[in-house]
Amino acid sequence: MPNPPDVRLAPILIVDDCHDTGGVLRVLLNQLGYSNVSFVTDGKILLKADIALRYGLILLDMHMPGWDGLDIMRHLRGKSSGQCVPVIAISGDDRCRAAAIAAGAVAFLLKPFGQEELEARIHDALSMVGGHAGRRMNCQLNANVCLNKVSQPANEARYAQ
């Protein structure tokens, strides 16, 4: 799926305590044409004053020592004044999907995931905010949209019986 050049220029931050995983993600994103990708191993950097607002998207590992992905997302949403950076939660444990979405993640990637799924989720998240950090979404609206996407299949299944 080709991405508009505007989206590929968006600053993306990968937060993963595993150097190998974060490094591979960074290389993969560069190969996909994303030219402004940063990588950190300590999510606590996002706790510093508005550093998250420098990015158009954060790919956040859910399981890290100290502050895990949920703690970081809650902190970011708590500091938000209606402006936020979309977060794609990443985990090898599907049991944290609902909690990640409830905490504000715009998408959830279950490890291992494929290149096409990664690119689709990134494209969708960046398209919602216009592709760069200068155009932000309303956090509450974003959380409601995500919760509706997650709960809709469950509701459809419940009423289909």
UniProtKB/TrEMBL annotation:
Q: Does the keyword DNA-binding apply?
A: yes
The Response regulatory domain extends over: 11-126
- Keywords of the record: DNA-binding, Phosphoprotein
Spell out which residues are annotated as carrying 4-aspartylphosphate: 61
Q: InterPro entries from the entry?
A: CheY-like_superfamily, Sig_transdc_resp-reg_receiver, WalR-like
User: Which SMART domains does the entry link to?
Assistant: REC
PANTHER family linked: REGULATOR OF RPOS, TETRATHIONATE RESPONSE REGULATORY PROTEIN TTRR
What is the name of the protein in this document? Answer: Two-component system, response regulator, stage 0 sporulation protein F
